[in-house]
Amino acid sequence: MVADKIEKFPDQIWGNHDLERGKLYGVTLGDLRVWLGEFDKEIRVAYQHSTSFPDDYQVPEEIEWSRWSHMHEDVKLNFKPVYPNRSVLVRPESKFWLLKSAKTRIFIDLPLWIRISLKEKSDVRLIDLPTKILSNTWFGDFFEGELCYWLSTHARRDAAEAESAPFMIRCPIVLVNKSEEDLLVEKICMRVNRMTMFIDNGQLWSDEVLIQYKGGREGSQIRQNATPPEEVPRAKLIRSAENATKKSFAAKTFATLKDIPGFGIIMD
Amino acid sequence: MDLQNFDMTNLFTVERLWSVLRLIILIFIGFPVLYLIRKWAKSYATNRISAQQGMVVGKIVYYAGLFILLIPILNEFGFKLSHVLGAAGIVGIAIGFASQTSVSNVISGLFLIAERPFKVNDVITVQNITGSVLSIDTLSVKIRTFDNKFIRIPNETIIKSDVTNITHFPIRRVDLKIGIAYKEDITRVKKLLLEIARNNPVCLNEPEPLVIFSGFGDSSINLLFVAWAIREDWLSLNNSLAIEVKKRFDEQGIEIPFPHLSLYTGSKTEAMPVELKGDPKS
Q1: What pLDDT does A267 receive?
Q2: ipTM score of the complex?
Q3: Please, are residues A34 and A27 in contact by the beta-carbon 8 Å criterion?
Q4: Would residue B282 count as lying in a domain?
Q5: Does A122 lie at the interface with B, CB-CB under 8 angstroms?
Q6: Taking each helix axis from N to C terminus, what angle separates B100-115 and B81-98, rounded to the nearest 10 degrees?
Q7: In which domain, by residue range, is B142 found?
Q8: Could you read off the pLDDT of A32-66 as tens digits, one per residue?
Q9: Does A118 reside within a domain?
Q10: A65 min Cα distance to partner chain B (Å)
Q11: Contact A89 B206 (CB under 8 A)
């Protein structure tokens, strides 16, 4: 694509932005760099993931463009932060035990996705892009389960310890062990479609997730309160939960494949 | 029949007109209604259970409805139900003897429906035939192979054979047999293979990829490299892993040996030609 100059998008990315015809824009969000523009009644978007980008926004030669034809005189795009499109299996970098009847509150940072929509009476979704590429993992057993993203991250006890992360969603989790056994917290499955999103001073937050472990192979009871966490009581709501039918639901949260009898026995 | 004394009023009696009306209602309303009920039942069972069960429920509803409709229709034509059933029984026995294979297939079909080893759209292998199941019918299972051939396998054959359902479980394992030269460091190779799996976008982190020692071969140390993907990504993982392993081994100078063969031409054959390249003095 040929454009005289690539204009950097404003730092305040969330919200509506007018696109000037024939002009190419560039924006970097975490590990994601996006180029977009409006040419010949077409909206064109290209993107690349990397941990380091050159300072200039020169478009790489072998990049693939997504194109949408439209009938508008003026094009306005909307940028929204969204949760990943699947549940995320979070693995704390240091696993820990939660003793029976114990309760703890931890914070994890979930990578953000960005939704680009064409602004109309009702927004027309163009594309959802992850700001960080996550690998896949399976949560469940060999017979049934769900495909999740895999995230290895710190599980901090204090939100203030963490640096501001504009392209991460800070998520407070309360873990309660209501079982008669100690719980080894190796992995936590986060059902992001149940989570609400807030913003406070540029930092994105989710509502608090309360997970009550009841032991054995029983599912955990998960509760989302859909209100800003206590650290940022005045945070502004920017996204309601996709699946907000019930605030409380039961689901497997801690199970691992290693729980399955015979796991580890490999036959050639 | 005496046509001269034929009385038309006998033909158009009230009773006969009612009979004709009932027939018209049965045929022109009964069959469309049956068709609609069958469609609804099939769609309901498909949405609630599975496409295969939907097909079965649709057929049960259709044949039951057909039977219910045929009885009053035959009755209107003056057939006695007891006679019809009696005749059907005798004919049934005769047909049964004549078509044992078909009956066996029908019964095998019932077992297939009850046991449910596969369902419509599953990919199965039966007697070296691999393909996607199009339908499970009364007499046979229809399969579409990946090179787009239509194959009909009798139900009896399926019941008697080993059936592999490739898409039954949601995740599948890719097995890559890799041989490395005896001079290579197995630990280093193992580390490299696991790194390849970790960086592959379709490879699952859990179940964990593994490198398993298979044995000391004639020409190589044999390893089994296993990684998991969701069933839809199996082919992609299989190919991308093989490509990446070859590429990384080449980059890292890890040798994949091949069997070495020494040829003896024998005393009765001529000497093997040898071509010398370059300056022999140097």
Answers
A1: 41
A2: 0.76
A3: yes
A4: no
A5: no
A6: 100
A7: 118-165
A8: 999 999 888 899 999 999 988 888 888 888 899 99
A9: no
A10: 21
A11: yes
**Average pLDDT of chain B, as a whole number:** 85
User: Do residue A74 and residue A90 come from a single domain?
Assistant: no
Q: Are residues A96 and A229 in the same domain?
A: yes
Instruction: Assess whether pLDDT exceeds 70 at residue B79.
Output: yes
- Tell me the residue range of the domain where A72 lies: 6-81
Mutate to test the interface with A, among B167, B169, B203, B205 (most CBs of A within 10 A): B205
Residue A161, H or E segment = none
Q: Same structural domain for residues A162 and A226?
A: yes
d(CA B16, CA B230): 67
Over range B49-67, report the average pLDDT. Answer: 81
Render A58-110 in DSSP notation, one character per residue.
PPPTT-PPEEEE---SSEEEEEEEE--SS-EEEEESS-EEE-TT-EEEEEEEE
- Residue of higher predicted confidence among A121 and A190: A190
Domain contains B105: no
Residue A144: the pLDDT is: 83
What is the total count of domains within chain A? Answer: 2
- Higher local confidence (pLDDT), A71 or A108: A108
- Residue with tokens 């490509």, as numbered in its chain: B243
Q: Are residues A24 and A97 in the same domain?
A: no
Which of B199, B206, B224, B228 best tests the A interface by mutation, with the highest count of A CBs <10 A? Answer: B206
Residue B203 lies in a domain: yes
Say if residue A259's pLDDT is above 60. no
- Cα A171 from Cα A231, distance rounded (Å): 11
- pLDDT tens, residue by residue, B135-183: 888 889 999 999 999 999 999 999 999 999 999 999 999 999 999 999 9
Query: Please, which contacts does A149-152 make with residues 24 or more away whose CB atoms are closer than 8 Å?
Result: A149/A84, A149/A86, A149/A87, A149/A88, A149/A89, A150/A88, A150/A89, A150/A91, A150/B205, A150/B206, A151/A88, A151/A89, A151/A90, A151/A91, A151/A108, A151/A110, A151/A111, A152/A91, A152/A93
Domain CATH code at residue B35: 1.10.287
| Tens of pLDDT, residues B6-17 | 666 666 777 778
Q: Do the domain assignments include residue B278?
A: no
Give the residue among B111, B99, B102 at the shortest CA–CA distance from B139.
Answer: B102
Shortest distance between the Cα of A259 and any Cα of chain B, in A, equals 12
Per-residue confidence at A264, pLDDT binned at 50, 70, 90?
very low
Q: Do residue B160 and residue B92 come from a single domain?
A: no
Q: Looking at the structure, do residues A172 and A238 belong to the same domain, yes or no?
A: yes
Tell me whether residue A121 is in a domain: no
Residues A139 and A238 in one domain: yes
CA gap B68, B41 in Å, rounded: 17
Kindly report the CATH number assigned to the domain that includes residue B125. Answer: 2.30.30.60
Higher pLDDT: B93 or A207? It is A207
Half-sphere exposure of A123 (CA within 13 A, CB side): 15
Residue A157 and residue A240 share a domain: yes
**Same domain, residue pair A163 and A215:** yes
- CATH number assigned to the domain comprising residue B240: 3.30.70.100
Q: Is the residue at A128 inside a domain?
A: no
Please give the backbone phi and psi of residue B30, each rounded to the nearest 5 degrees, phi first: -60, -50
